[in-house]
């Protein structure tokens, strides 16, 4: 395995600032694949989906991936979504033709659908993330050498979707079930089919190069304007990949929210226009058949935009290269939470004790994890969810996280326990004052779940499809 860093650096002849442009030109294309999955559930009502689905290209990648893969632990579904900047065919109008240069992918999102279809999460992998890349088999049977230190987007260039799957499975230990690769074609039609996508600009933008001219504030954009927006490289954000991903996630959330709205799903003309446009831009693995898509769509039919979340894989500055990023210590527990997700919808409503809302729960937070500042960070998260934090402190190191309660506070403790990963069983705390609850953060603590969100902990900076597009992070 190659020990030298493997980077993907490209210079577009027509682009004086390629690093800032690359992310934007892919931004909307991943949204197309997301929309196709989200709205497919309604297609059977119109008897036209087979026509549209026939446009989808499919690749058999099993032989390239091999059999050395993570074990699947539950019925969750993981779909890798890739944005490809292939300039073949009708895509050639969007920039120069890349002679003797394979397509590349600067957008990689793992869509995780929880068991039972109650919620979904889109996990973004920064293009500059440094990872270990395994040796990969190309379509022609030749091998590309692996690297102990490679920029993650190099996997697509050197080995296609199969290599990206192997790379992400290697760093996350999460089994990927399918992939969806989308390109330029059909983006304008997608935005027009849903009636436009809402975006919010913090300041006026007047960019002659992209043709984008919008005032500050909220706009509904489609067609050429939407295309100019996602390709714009001037006046939007600070140019960092982190900022780009946040805007990307907001755009995908807004598009998904629109695609899931009644106005789109119940309008046959809009619906078929959306699917036709999206399917022409899509390639998948051979096992993601039309029938499988419909099965997935039916399982997702109960997901509301408030249950569709977007997060970035836990990462920070790479200690070896300030221009790159690396996974942080929070990545391992995050991947574990995804891999072990056992979220299922409730079997049926049943009589239960009256629920105590978070704003009626007084809690003290004790750090027994050995990690400096953990109690303060968790306290902030609790307050964000409405809990009354009565104080923080340190405790003797404990391997496990505990929820304790004083006299008369058992139901309050149950409210707290529901958002602690692993849902520890509340126990009496003899030294606690009556009505008081305590959270003792142990070494096994990963994060808090959003109240009512199921088995995946809430992540810092996450975005929901139902969020106001003008909401500041």
Automatic annotation (TrEMBL):
Residues 464-473 have a biased composition (Basic and acidic residues). Signal peptide: none annotated. Keywords: Membrane, Transmembrane, Transmembrane helix. Residues 451-473 are annotated as: Disordered. The chain crosses the membrane at residues 26-49. Residues 104-260 form the Cell envelope-related transcriptional attenuator domain. Residues 360-445 form the LytR/CpsA/Psr regulator C-terminal domain. It comes from the Bacteria. Gene3D superfamilies: 3.30.70.2390, LCP protein. It holds the Pfam family LytR_cpsA_psr. Belongs to the LytR/CpsA/Psr (LCP) family. PANTHER family: POLYISOPRENYL-TEICHOIC ACID--PEPTIDOGLYCAN TEICHOIC ACID TRANSFERASE TAGU (PTHR33392). This is Transcriptional regulator LytR. It comes from Actinomadura macrotermitis.
């Amino acid at each position: 395995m190659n020990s030298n860093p493997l980077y993907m650096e490209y210079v577009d002849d027509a682009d004086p600032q390629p690093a800032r442009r690359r992310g934007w030109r892919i931004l909307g294309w991943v949204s197309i694949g997301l929309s196709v999955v989200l709205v497919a559930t309604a297609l059977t009502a119109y008897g036209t989906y087979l026509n549209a689905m026939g446009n989808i290209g499919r690749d058999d990648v099993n032989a390239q991936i091999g059999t050395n893969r993570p074990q699947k632990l539950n019925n969750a579904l993981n779909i890798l979504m890739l944005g490809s900047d292939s300039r073949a065919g009708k895509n050639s109008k969007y920039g120069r033709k890349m002679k003797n240069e394979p397509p590349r992918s600067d957008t990689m999102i793992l869509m995780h659908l929880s068991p039972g279809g109650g919620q979904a999460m889109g996990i973004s992998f920064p293009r500059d993330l440094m990872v270990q890349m395994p040796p990969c088999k190309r379509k022609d049977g030749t091998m590309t050498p692996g690297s102990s230190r490679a920029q993650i987007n190099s996997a697509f260039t050197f080995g296609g979707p199969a290599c990206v799957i192997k790379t992400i499975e290697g760093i996350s230990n999460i089994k990927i079930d399918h992939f969806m690769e989308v390109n330029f074609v059909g983006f304008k039609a997608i935005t027009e089919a849903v009636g436009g996508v809402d975006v919010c600009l913090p300041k006026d933008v007047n960019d002659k190069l992209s043709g984008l001219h919008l005032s500050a504030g909220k706009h509904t954009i489609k067609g050429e304007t939407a295309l100019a927006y996602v390709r714009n490289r001037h006046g939007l954000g600070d140019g960092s990949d982190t900022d780009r991903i946040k805007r990307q996630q907001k755009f995908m959330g807004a598009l998904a929210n629109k695609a899931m709205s009644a106005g789109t799903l119940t309008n046959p003309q809009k619906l078929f226009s959306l699917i036709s446009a999206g399917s022409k831009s899509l390639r998948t693995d051979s096992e993601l058949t039309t029938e499988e898509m419909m099965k997935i769509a039916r399982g997702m039919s109960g997901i509301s935009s408030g249950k569709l979340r977007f997060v970035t894989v836990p990462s920070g500055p790479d200690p070896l290269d300030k221009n790159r990023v690396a996974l942080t210590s929070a990545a391992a527990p995050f991947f574990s939470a995804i891999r072990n997700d056992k979220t299922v919808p409730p079997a049926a409503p049943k009589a239960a004790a009256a629920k105590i809302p978070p704003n009626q729960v007084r809690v003290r937070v004790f750090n027994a994890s050995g990690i400096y500042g953990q109690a303060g960070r968790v306290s902030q998260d609790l307050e964000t969810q409405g809990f009354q934090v009565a104080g923080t402190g340190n405790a003797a190191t404990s391997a496990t996280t505990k929820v304790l309660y004083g006299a008369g506070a058992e139901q309050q403790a149950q409210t707290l326990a529901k958002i602690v990963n692993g849902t520890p069983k509340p126990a009496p705390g003899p030294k606690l004052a009556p009505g008081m609850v305590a959270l003792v953060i142990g070494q096994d603590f990963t994060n808090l779940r959003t109240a009512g969100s199921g088995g995946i902990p809430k992540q810092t900076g996450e975005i929901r499809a139902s969020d106001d597009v003008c909401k500041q992070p």
